[in-house]
Model the fold of this input.
Amino acid sequence: MTTTDRPGHRPVIEVLYVQACPHYPATLALVERVRAEVGIDAELRTSVIVDQAAADQVGFPGSPTVRVDGRDVEPDSEPATEYVVGCRLYRLEHRFVSQPEERWIREALLQAVGRS
Done:
């Protein structure tokens, strides 16, 4: 599969995290695997959020955060009003999880290239 639906558009995946985040390595591996499986040539950028000023500057809701073309992959997520240099929890049905769901990443990538 190649990116042919939106010629010339190469999505950007951002994985933002804090240095001590125990969920960052698994989240990064998940993003890389999904990117390969869907066959989208997306640019992958990682950024360590080192302090409150950096969190405020990028609108960081916690670690890890995954964005595709600047949009959080968590469906229906409200824009954060407070930014933290710490861990993040994602809403999943009636519980919270420590990393985004695989299907959220997949759907965000497919939407970025017009295949949703």
Summary: DSSP finds three helices and six strands in the chain.
